[in-house]
Design the sequence.
């Protein structure tokens, strides 16, 4: 899965201090900005088959793809995203504030990266699965996204708050939903009872994200864990985010566990290995 559609590796220790992804990227050969059409194009070309995006509702009820709550850090705009109209967002430079050397250079400034409507991604990649992380937590935003997805045939999962999950579930029980609380509940509950061969209720028809550093605590990882949760309609993913992946994880992927990452080299290598394994059968 292409995390935030793709984009640069992030120094998460620095991010904890700056609170801003744009100020915390690492120098790399990736030449795109997260949550942009260019980033997704690179990820899809590398072989990503699931696209994760951050979504906001604008003042004029348009759904746009952008991560931060405000425009101030990453762009040349200012103020909350939800208070801007799409017409205002169209002219904003989405790569303006990105720097890996504390402001000495801004490699993505003036390179044409923009904030796009969600529809632009669906039009370009109609056969891909989308994971949509809805940043807003109000009823109007829930309604707007639900109305939009009602007309889509492609597969999607909505990542939202506990409040949002309850709203969407009441509206349409067939929607696949994820919230921070639901992921935490599944993880904690499985740690408590997984060793006994049990799958807790919170891990049924759910999604489990596991940070790579925590895999040793999950009983049966990777093959048995994946098989066990999949038998209850659940998926397991390694939550690597914007970090470079230094090991192959080939055994993990073949066992049915997905990887959430923006590391293009890893995506390319994984897909190449898949083809080699399929040809060898």
Sequence:
């Amino acid at each position: 899965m292409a995390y935030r559609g793709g984009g640069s590796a992030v120094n998460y220790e620095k991010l904890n201090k700056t609170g801003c992804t744009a100020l915390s990227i690492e120098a790399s050969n990736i030449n795109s900005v997260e949550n942009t059409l260019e980033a997704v194009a690179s990820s899809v070309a590398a072989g990503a088959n699931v696209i994760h995006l951050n979504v906001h509702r604008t003042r004029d009820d348009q759904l746009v793809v952008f991560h931060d709550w405000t425009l101030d850090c990453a762009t040349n705009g200012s103020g909350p995203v939800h208070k801007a109209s799409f017409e205002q967002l169209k002219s904003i430079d989405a790569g303006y504030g990105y720097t890996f050397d504390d402001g000495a250079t801004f490699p993505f400034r003036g390179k044409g990266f923009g904030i796009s409507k969600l529809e632009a991604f669906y039009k370009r990649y109609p056969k891909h699965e989308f994971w949509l992380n809805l940043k807003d937590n109000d009823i109007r935003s829930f309604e707007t996204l639900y109305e939009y997805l009602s007309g889509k045939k492609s597969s999607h999962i909505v990542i939202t708050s506990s409040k949002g999950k309850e709203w969407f579930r009441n509206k349409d029980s067939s929607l696949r939903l994820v919230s921070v609380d639901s992921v935490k509940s599944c993880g904690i509950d499985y740690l408590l009872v997984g060793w006994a061969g049990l799958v807790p209720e919170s891990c049924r028809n759910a999604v489990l994200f596991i940070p790579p550093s925590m895999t040793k605590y999950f009983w049966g990882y990777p093959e048995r864990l994946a098989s066990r949760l999949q038998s209850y309609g659940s998926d397991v993913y390694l939550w690597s985010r914007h970090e470079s992946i230094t090991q192959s994880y080939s055994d993990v992927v073949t066992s049915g566990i997905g990887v959430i990452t923006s590391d293009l080299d890893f995506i390319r290598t994984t897909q190449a290995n898949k083809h080699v394994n399929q040809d060898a059968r």
Observations:
- Residues 1-174 form a domain with the TIM Barrel fold (CATH 3.20.20.190).
- The CA atoms of residues 52 and 131 lie 5 Å apart.
- The mean pLDDT is 94.
- The chain is about 35% helix and 15% strand.
